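Example record

The entry below shows one chain as it appears in the dataset: sequence first, then C-alpha cells.
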Amino acid sequence: MKVPPKAKRLTKTYDYRMQARSYAVQAVYQRLTLQEATEQTEVDNVELSASRDDAVWLQAFVEGYMADSDKDVVSFFRSLCGGVIAQRTDIEARLLPLLHVDWPLVKMVLVVRAFLLLGAWEWFYGDDAEQATLPPPQFIKAWLTVADGFCDKKEVSFLNAFFHKMTEGGANHGTG
C-alpha cells in the first residue's frame, strides 16, 4: 500500500489502522460484489457457495491478501470486517435516516457502500480505547485518506459530507 506523505510522520497506530482500513474496503467491496452476483444469477459454483460462509470468506481474504501483514493490521481488519458482517442490518438502519430519500444505500456504487458500512461500524460500534477517543475530524480524515485511493473526487466529496453528518456532535461514538 502506498502510504500518504503525511502518514509517514504519524504513529505506528495510525499507519496500521490505515492499512487495515484499506484492506477492509477491498474485502467488503469484494463481498458486496459477490453477494450482488449471486443474487442476480443462480450460479451453482462450489467456490461461490463456499464463499457464502462469512468466516471462511474472511479467513480466505486474510490468507490470500494479508499473509505478510503485521498482526495489528490483521486484528483491526478482522474487527472492521467482522463488525460489518455481524451488524450489517443495524448499520444500514442507522445509515438510512442520514441518506437522501431518493438515494438509498442500494443505489450507491459498491465501493462507496463499503466505505459507508465500514465507517459507520467503526464510528458507532468500534469499542477499542484508541478508536473511542478519536475526534470526528481525525476519524473523517482517516477514512478520506483511504478513499482517495479508491474513489473519484465526487465520491470522496460525498463521503466527506456524509461522515460529517454522521459524526455531528460526536453522538453515538463507540457506543453501539
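Notes for this example: The longest helix spans residues 12-40. The chain has eight helices and no strands.
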